[in-house]
Amino acid sequence: MCEKIPGTGGERYVPYAERTGNESIVYFTRDLSAEGLRKLYRRVNGQICGKVAIKLHTGEQYGPNIIPHQWVEALVKSDLPEATIVETNTFYEGDRDTTEKHRETLKVNGWTFCPVDITDAEGTCDLPVTGGKWFDHMTVGKTLPDYDSLVVLTHFKGHTMGGFGGSNKNIGIGCADGKIGKRMIHARDSEDPELAWSVDMEELMERISESTKATVDHFGRHITFVNVMRNMSVSCDCEGCLAEQVVTPDVGILASTDILALDQASVDLIYALSETDGAAMRERIESRHGHRQLSYMEELGMGNRRYLLLDTDADDARIQPADAVKGVVPFVEDQKVAERRMRALAALAAQEQAQQ
User: Which of 23, 112, 263, 303 would give a disulfide with 166, using CB separation of 3.0 to 4.6 Å?
Assistant: First the structure.
């Protein structure tokens, strides 16, 4: 049996000039609003039909950085009136590790305007992974295959282990069920609690991407992707109010039918920011070797790393990442969010002190 060895180079950003292959279309708007979200979705929804699921990160309780539920409500009412939000329970302990707690968190965070299917609430099913190194299947929520189409609506941000969380992470972790699939990714399927988070760096990126491939292949042409680049903490929304303070400027919304082109374009916009504005996110991506998400998706044949970035604010003119981020302004944290974050940090510190 051949030893499985992770790839390398996940710490290195690959400039556009070094990439090869075809170019996919990625749409962009600076309009960070419900209308901007609707506009971008309509550019990539041509194959969305039948029973539609929307995969998004609904967040821990009171999480300050998730996509505003009001934006999603407007999208559902105008464009996806019969759609269902789909989620899975978490592997870590928190506000969403059981279906009961997850349901309460959904109410707290405002996800009450359409049905929400916690797809692993009643069990799991397996989807094949074609051409994988680590998996021949991924275990997902039992009801995920009940849907004909999937809209992947992602809050693009940093991630404590993945470096960044784009569409790939949203599906790869977010569609894997909470107790089996996520354990396969994070713990090499071990039930030893000391190994629960033992997979990291390039191997983690590859496992996430293979999990994503199972879902993407299942839906085929009937899947599309939107990344919202706002409130980009280096922490994932899984950390809720404990997420690190946002220091990266808001950028805009991107959409594509090519998951790799979309995540690559989103990363490129981070690298197009000034040294000061992009430093925190770039450090997070590189220190976790997050670029391996992109290179491995390419190896798996999941899309193109080259793309045409079209500015929907300017009649679809082709622009460069530097054009997209020109004029961004420093992020200003809402005072109520800052107070909530400080209270959460104080509560955590008090808990740790009590345990010592």
Answer: 263
